[in-house]
Amino acid sequence: xxxxxxxxxxxxxxxxxxxxxxxxxxxxxxxxxxxxxxxxxxxxxxxxxxxxxxxxxxxxxxxxxxxxxxxxxxxxxxxxxxxxxxxxxxxxxxxxxxxxxxxxxxxxxxxxxxxxxxxxxxxxxxxxxxxxxxxxxxxxxxxxxxxxxxxxxxxxxxxxxxxxxxxxxxxxxxxxxxxxxxxxxxxxxxxxxxxxxxxxxxxxxxxxxxxxxxxxxxxxxxxxxxxxxxxxxxxxxxxxxxxxxxxxxxxxxxxxxxxxxxxxxxxxxxxxxxxxxxxxxxxxxxxxxxxxxxxxxxxxxxxxxxxxxxxxxxxxxxxxxxxxxxxxxxxxxxxxxxxxxxxxxxxxxxxxxxxxxxxxxxxxxxxxxxxxxxxxxxxxxxxxxxxxxxxxxxxxxxxxxxxxxxxxxxxxxxxxxxxxxxxxxxxxxxxxxxxxxxxxxxxxxxxxxxxxxxxxxxxxxxxxxxxxxxxxxxxxxxxxxxxxxxxxxxxxxxxxxxxxxxxxxxxxxxxxxxxxxxxxxxxxxxxxxxxxxxxxxxxxxxxxxxxxxxxxxxxxxxxxxxxxxxxxxxxxxxxxxxxxxxxxxxxxxxxxxxxxxxxxxxxxxxxxxxxxxxxxxxxxxxxxxxxxxxxxxxxxxxxxxxxxxxxxxx
Amino acid sequence: xxxxxxxxxxxxxxxxxxxxxxxxxxxxxxxxxxxxxxxxxxxxxxxxxxxxxxxxxxxxxxxxxxxxxxxxxxxxxxxxxxxxxxxxxxxxxxxxxxxxxxxxxxxxxxxxxxxxxxxxxxxxxxxxxxxxxxxxxxxxxxxxxxxxxxxxxxxxxxxxxxxxxxxxxxxxxxxxxxxxxxxxxxxxxxxxxxxxxxxxxxxxxxxxxxxxxxxxxxxxxxxxxxxxxxxxxxxxxxxxxxxxxxxxxxxxxxxxxxxxxxxxxxxxxxxxxxxxxxxxxxxxxxxxxxxxxxxxxxxxxxxxxxxxxxxxxxxxxxxxxxxxxxxxxxxxxxxxxxxxxxxxxxxxxxxxxxxxxxxxxxxxxxxxxxxxxxxxxxxxxxxxxxxxxxxxxxxxxxxxxxxxxxxxxxxxxxxxxxxxxxxxxxxxxxxxxxxxxxxxxxxxxxxxxxxxxxxxxxxxxxxxxxxxxxxxxxxxxxxxxxxxxxxxxxxxxxxxxxxxxxxxxxxxxxxxxxxxxxxxxxxxxxxxxxxxxxxxxxxxxxxxxxxxxxxxxxxxxxxxxxxxxxxxxxxxxxxxxx
Lengths: 650, 578
Prior knowledge:
By secondary structure, chain A is an alpha/beta fold. Among the domains of chain A are: 24-115, Ubiquitin-like (UB roll) (Roll); 127-247, 2-Layer Sandwich (Alpha-Beta Plaits), CATH 3.30.70.20. Chain A has helices spanning 3-6, 30-37, 59-65, 117-133, 148-155, 192-200, 235-239, 251-259, 271-276, 290-300, 308-331, 348-357, 371-386, 404-409, 428-437, 459-462, 469-483, 487-490, 546-557, 589-605, 615-623, 632-638; strands spanning 7-11, 41-46, 49-54, 89-92, 99-100, 110-113, 180-182, 207-209, 216-218, 245-247, 264-269, 304-307, 342-343, 394-400, 424-427, 505-511, 537-544, 567-571. Chain A is globular and about 80 Å long. By secondary structure, chain B is α/β, with parallel strands linked by helices. Chain B folds into 5 domains: 3-66, Arc Repressor Mutant, subunit A; 78-157, Glutaredoxin, CATH 3.40.30; 197-398, 3-Layer(aba) Sandwich (Rossmann fold); 407-478, Ubiquitin-like (UB roll), CATH 3.10.20; 484-577, NADH-ubiquinone oxidoreductase 51kDa subunit, iron-sulphur binding domain (de novo design (two linked rop proteins), Up-down Bundle). In chain B, strand 9 (407-414) and strand 10 form a beta hairpin. In chain B, helix 2 (27-38) packs antiparallel against helix 3 and helix 12 crosses helix 15. Chain B starts with a helix and ends with a helix. The chains are: A alpha/beta, B alpha/beta. At the A-B interface, helix 2, helix 4 and strand 8 of A face helix 3, helix 4, helix 17, helix 18 and helix 19 of B.
């Protein structure tokens, strides 16, 4: 069966500049914009290189093409132009003042010099000024050796504090959040976090406040992060050039647990860290180190190393069943109270975003816990029983690409077994730090597999790491379960192209051509037949980054196209988990694409690529969750509820 | 807060937001109205505003904290703002300040326990020729003395509500604002002009000929930057867009400048006529006057002037019977931010943002207010245009130099016998001007305000003109008793407060310069470090984002250059004895 007959795709372009603060946007002049649309070119000379570039190319972009390095700080490839740090100043012939390369659009022939006495002196002065107000010593900073300010200081030969140096911290560190720590003493006011929070994510926690020498980056009324509407996505951390923003690091507690002989310390690793942790060891982005990481974790002293993908497979069965049950209720039982579309719930940033901004849609959220939490619940029950370890002696650590997972594991409702599902959420960065601290050279290690009994997982669980991955995994299973066809017959090589890629919002329709028998696993739900799904066109969508999520939600509110969807995958972070707030800095579209490539490649190398074919998952339903997906026990341990948080800041 | 109070406030804010179509452009007026009524903008109010305008609460907070006339903290019924800028400083504002603190029993920045009075510093109220000046809510007090302080406060204390000064213009403590025009009014922009003469002629000419006329006249922007007016207008006229705007920059905040105040109060119709002509040239239907918050007392008269022009068919639809020409003018108030005099910051402010200058290019002529082509001109420039059109292209050229044609309004203050407004041709030397104003004793003259430069006696033969020493009109005279370090400190304090704070060179650079002046005062600054800072000043001039940052070090650089003997070698002990 040819795949293109069955489904159609639709990538939706949405004008997302509508709410961008004007001061931080690359303003566009109409004449040259019109010229750009006609593909006009313009000649530019940068130092000794003369070239033709499309009109409106910035000086910075033009310089990159000829490998002329211009330093930047406030510039970030994911964000709109600010032009505030001024480190990228260059001299343009005929201009009285220096111009910032990041913001200067080339609309006529110009001659640019990037290293003149004026430019060098200005850059050095600007650096010296930043350093004079940047409190803290590099050797006691989380970003030591990975700090953009530090690298620039080295590059420009800073060997003394020309304009002095602050001796005392100006403000207290905000440690109120489970996820994000703010040390504004290190802030250089590049405003990347502001642009991340307001434009990229449209969450709006951070903004510049006051003015002049009093200017600072603030939350609303300078309240602690835990008191404002922060979704803990940590995208600001990834984009902070210094150590002003960082995740709340639990590694000391984890070391203590490891060193305690009475504690059985289990770590589960999510797919995205494996594709990114190599970056912290100077490997190229997109180098997957799954097997080496397993060895490293054992050498660090973890008692068991498990694969989160097992729980991802479990999630697919629970969440997929939930979707089918909702469809049955709506189509067979004609129950109008069933909420559609069903939203995924594995991104804790997205979940909190919805709880704050769209609490009226809480019924749409799948009640399935995220893989992290499901795994925790399974470990403190099934695994504990099976190995006769008391749950109080089990310490569950989750290696995640995510800062919001730290908040998620501390949600009070995440302890249905009577014990905290997950004790610590650990980010990729923190894990890399622990490995380095243990004196382990990750890339040089021999590889090893995961521990049993959760050792093998499917490629479907693996691709959870990329935007569209949850949807792809769900479709691989749902299509097969419902139609009785092999998913490979519907999707060539099991690749579902329409949900892949970094388009902000993806949409796909899938017609169910035939139905097969209802599998035994679902027998408890008393579904006799899938006939009600025959001929139904399944409409699904995928959105990543909360700004895109917002567009989808607004469309649903307005009764638009997305309100007719059956299932929508939302991820808080741009790119999905692989672009998570716990991943190594820096981040950029290229880096995220490389990580995605690694994840998809690993998927294709696996034998099992569908969640419902994971033998361990089937076993747990046989031995432990005997009522099958969405059964009573599942509901108790693997599902959860949500809180109407609202937008009021009190 | 009681639930009923909340509901009432919520309704009030909703009404305000509805007036502005729930658009972000309305943010500043909404916040001003809340502040005026409730003396502060509460957490709840900010969140309500955010909800109604569909923006984030933190964005509202960012804006509130940016403007000095808005406040999240409860302020008194009477908010007293005493001008601390150099001209008032020379006229002994310190005595007034001390007396205010004594009488009220609070320090600057505080509010009295009974919630009646709050005391703040203000940066240049534009009353430099009749200081020390003080603002109480919307009321301006000039020539305040320590002795008058008591009477003024009594007047407030005994009033019902905040209407202390309604109809009390004749009370002894109240000195009305004077226009203080010292030169004769027969030269240029101060000439009488019939209210429709220029406009009639403009309609006869049509856009192209108007631009041509301005071009021949050689008119350059009177705000100080000196950009040829005809080029700006021509560029804006050329861009195709269904909406265009004419903005009048009446955010006169440069220390020592007060000529726009006089134009706005005595010559408003000339300025309004100039704006209308601009609308005709670029094809705009709407003009906006951005009036600084400190001048809100002028609002009433300006509105009246606009109404009069409406009833005379000089504004509104089908102006003077021309069915293709409609133009209207709105007034928007600033909220105490000097930076909003920078044209792109002004536009940001109009859009309801923090007044932070934009990256340029592109320029407002193609991407201005709400991304539409916008021209921003100074009050005096618009007034000049009306005269030029009325009197023909060669009129302006009668006076001035080749590169700086025409006359210029100077706002003269400081140590001189006859402070006030002078209209003089460009090319006048500083010496000549000093003789006119009675400042022959001067040891230095600050030309161009805080962002201008300090000219020493040895350079008094220089011309005031775009090609020599340019200025927006501020002339501050210093005599031998003035401590030039004090002057530098005052200006740098000003820039530390008034910088928007977005770019590094301006935000931190000004802090470093101010620190060094304080060190120099104590005799603790080495010449090596002073030289570093002079070099830093040059970097600020070259690499700051906007005109404010680029000109902020001017005063420091010229003072440290020309008055080395005076500023170096100060001794700590001597200072302590003093």
